[in-house]
């Protein structure tokens, strides 16, 4: 399947090199590296102009490689970071000035969940709000309502990964998807149509994308490749993720609008 026009922004990819240390609790240790130069080459091949490096749980609060990549390629890249909630305003401001646009809560499988109404998290979300940064959420769909409610109270911008991870296993009853749609409709939440290749049923991301387009529109959606497809490296390519975007969002005008939304959010 040929794709006539590449997405404007890849809002979700990862990058690291051989010097990047793994956190002790990393769920996987990889036998390869995926430096920013490789990511940019893949973007170029598919006609993707801009990208966002998403912080990865494998590396915990080590953000040095991302910051260096943003410094070297700031015209094309932005990033998110994983931080301790006690990081403080000056350090967050320095990250923002270096191209970091949000803080990722990598809370998939984390139990128990931290209390976002706790003082340190309230200060963190308030600082992010005041710096016009966002909270980048990765969590099972069924637990999304627990996170979206306190985040909405803070007024911080929210970006939710991977269709909200909503399927029968991770979001029984679809309550997370319902909460996600409500949050987007309230105007301070966005969702990435990304990593759909990780759903067991390929129809799920198609159905989710159609519903999100109908109920929240292109102004609340981003696309991301999720390169380098950890765990699916042998079955997914960057080019294939671009094709999947066309499968999920068949209308070229809607795909362009999603790209423009991402550009305004991350680069505007």
List the helices and strands and how they pair.
Blueprint: E1 9-13, H1 36-45, E2 50-53, H2 64-72, E3 77-81, H3 89-97, E4 100-106, H4 119-130, E5 134-138, H5 144-154, E6 157-160, H6 175-186, E7 189-194, H7 203-215, E8 221-224, H8 238-248, H9 252-267
Parallel strand pairs: 1-2, 2-3, 3-4, 4-5, 5-6, 6-7, 7-8
Helix pairs in contact: 5-6
Task: Note the main attributes of this structure.
alpha/beta; TIM Barrel; globular; 268 residues
Task: Report what the structure shows.
With 268 residues, this protein is of the alpha/beta class. The chain has helices spanning 36-45, 64-72, 89-97, 119-130, 144-154, 175-186, 203-215, 238-248, 252-267, and strands at 9-13, 50-53, 77-81, 100-106, 134-138, 157-160, 189-194, 221-224. An eight-stranded parallel sheet has the order 1-2-3-4-5-6-7-8, with helices on both faces. It is globular, with a radius of gyration of 17 Å. It has a single domain, classed as TIM Barrel. It is built from nine helices and eight strands. It starts with 8 loop residues before the first strand and ends with a helix.
């Amino acid at each position: 399947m040929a794709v006539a026009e590449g997405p404007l922004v890849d809002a979700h990819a990862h990058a690291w090199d051989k010097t990047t240390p793994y956190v002790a609790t990393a769920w996987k240790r990889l036998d390869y590296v995926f430096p920013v130069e490789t990511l940019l080459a893949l973007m170029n091949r598919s006609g993707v102009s801009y990208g966002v490096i998403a912080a990865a749980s494998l590396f915990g609060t080590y953000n040095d490689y991302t910051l260096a990549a943003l410094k070297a390629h700031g015209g094309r890249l932005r990033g998110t970071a994983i931080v301790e909630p006690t990081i403080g305003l000056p350090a967050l401001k320095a990250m923002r000035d270096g191209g970091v646009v949000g803080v990722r809560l990598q809370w998939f499988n984390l139990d128990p969940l931290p209390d976002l109404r706790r003082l340190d998290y309230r200060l963190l979300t308030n600082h992010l709000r005041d710096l016009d940064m966002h909270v980048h959420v990765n969590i099972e769909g069924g637990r999304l309502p627990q996170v979206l409610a306190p985040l909405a109270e803070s007024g911080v911008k929210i970006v939710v990964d991977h269709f909200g991870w909503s399927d029968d296993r991770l979001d029984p009853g679809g309550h997370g998807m319902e909460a996600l749609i409500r949050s987007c409709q309230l105007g301070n939440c966005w969702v990435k149509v990304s990593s759909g290749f990780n759903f067991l049923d390929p129809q799920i991301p198609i159905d989710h994308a159609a519903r999100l387009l109908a109920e929240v529109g292109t102004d609340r959606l981003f696309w991301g490749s999720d390169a380098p497809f950890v765990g699916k490296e042998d079955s997914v390519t960057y080019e294939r993720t671009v094709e999947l975007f066309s499968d999920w969002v068949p209308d070229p005008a809607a795909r362009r609008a999603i790209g423009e939304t991402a550009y305004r959010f991350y680069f505007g």
